[in-house]
Specification:
This is Aromatic ring-hydroxylating dioxygenase subunit alpha. This protein is an alpha+beta fold. It is 27% helix and 23% strand. It has ten helices and 17 strands. Strand 6 and strand 7 form a beta hairpin.
């Protein structure tokens, strides 16, 4: 049976409020369609402006079949390109990050300007026009210190997302922060299982002793409904907004991205074992109070975030295969914060390092069980797993119409 039609049939026939059928979590052909119809079409969070501090700073990323390089040019603009030399296709930048005056392909030394123009191609024939062979661009946008790319030939309008999330992000001045630490773990599970696990705290009490010292398990925090009827959430929003911080729950009409500010437990101000600050210097000079809780920012399919008064923890999800997903976590602090003076790195990273590893084991056990021939979709808890239900609804409503289109999405070629 045609995989597109098979996938569409299962989506149309699925039970509302239930997990997906087995192939959505395990089948390589279903995974290829996820990549083509979502990951190669939509805006993806890649990293932060502060990771590209000066002209020539670059970072690289692999999105499915597409190697991409992001670089800051001489005018301060962040550009993204397909990381594939226009000569014979070799990767131009083959390290995760670095700094270069020009981008030089190590194979035959074709040399590109930081804006992608080809500057030098040794001993080519007469009539060779360098202007025809610049690096192929990838759509790139920066908002509030976050860098997003889109591989589609005609990206969706970024303006609505910018308009919604920028007011939440700007007070934290993440463009001026620095990365104190980052880690990447590979979870042996489908990317949707990683997201489903993230979107509920039904599992938290039994699995996350460190996180549960400060992070509330209330469904109004982890879900998408009912926050405006939770007196504690409403009171917290009022306090934060009175100090100039946008805080109320907002979600875009398609359910792809949302933001809200949530209180931490009791008198906690940071994700530490004591609930006390992890960093003595505020993340932003514009935010003077500790009691802002955590700004929770989500954007499917690549990122969830926790931004506090003293630091931020950002997460990036990138699929590797039908049964493997890379999760990259970055801890951001004030640019002038000094390790060993303003913060202890082990204390700063402990809670989420432990939580990430616990979530990895959970996802892998979930994935292992789904491989069973006896697996069948099960019901989500309407009380505790509203966020999971919303994620699965988003996925079905997003990919369904694209499956029905037929044909392959129009993408920029990397050849």
């Amino acid at each position: 049976m045609d995989i597109r039609n098979d996938m569409l049939r299962l989506l149309k026939g699925r039970r509302q409020g239930f997990s997906l059928e087995q192939p959505f979590y395990t089948d390589p052909d279903y995974f290829k369609l996820d990549m083509e119809l979502i990951w190669y079409r939509d805006w993806l969070f890649i990293g932060h402006d502060c990771e590209l501090p000066k002209p020539g700073s670059y970072i690289t990323v692999q999105v499915g079949d597409y190697p991409v390089v992001l670089v800051r040019d001489q005018h301060g603009k962040i550009n993204a390109f397909h990381n594939s030399c226009r000569h014979r296709g070799s990767r131009v930048c083959n390290t995760e990050k670095g700094t270069a005056a020009k981008l030089v392909c190590p194979y035959h030394q074709w040399t590109y300007e930081l804006d992608g123009r080809l500057l030098f191609a040794r001993q080519m024939a007469d009539g060779f026009d360098k202007s025809d062979f610049g690096l192929k661009p990838v759509a790139c946008e920066s908002v509030g210190g976050y860098i997003f790319i889109c591989l589609a030939k005609e990206p969706a309008d970024f303006a609505p997302m910018r308009a919604m999330i920028e007011p939440y992000l700007l007070p934290h001045r993440l463009r001026e922060a620095k990365i104190a630490f980052e880690s990447t773990i590979v979870e042996k599970g489908n990317w949707k299982l990683v997201w489903e696990n993230n979107r509920e705290c039904y599992h938290c009490a039994a699995n996350h002793p460190e996180l549960c010292k400060t992070f509330p398990e209330a469904p109004t925090v982890t879900g998408v409904h009912g926050a405006d009827s939770d007196p504690e959430m409403v009171a917290h929003w009022a306090r934060c907004e009175a100090s100039g911080l946008p805080s109320k729950f907002r979600i875009d009409p398609a359910g792809q991205y949302r933001a809200t500010r949530a209180p931490l437990l009791r008198d906690a101000v940071s994700y530490t074992m004591t609930g006390k600050r992890a960093v003595q210097k505020n993340l932003s000079d514009s935010v003077s109070t500790d009691r802002i809780g955590s700004l929770l920012l989500y954007h499917y399919p690549t990122t969830w975030n926790h931004i506090l008064g003293d630091h931020a923890v950002t997460f990036r999800v990138l699929p590797i295969s039908a049964t493997e997903t890379a999760v990259t976590t970055k801890w951001l602090v004030h640019k002038d914060a000094v390790e060993g003076v303003d913060y202890d790195l082990a204390e700063l990273t402990h809670v989420w390092t432990e939580t990430n590893d616990q979530d990895r084991r959970i996802v892998e056990e979930n994935a292992f069980g789904i491989l069973s021939p006896a697996y069948e979709p099960g019901p989500y808890s309407e009380l505790h797993e509203g966020g999971v239900i919303q994620f699965v609804e988003w996925y079905a409503s997003f990919i369904g119409p694209r499956l029905a289109e037929g044909g392959r999405p129009a993408l920029r070629s990397v050849a």
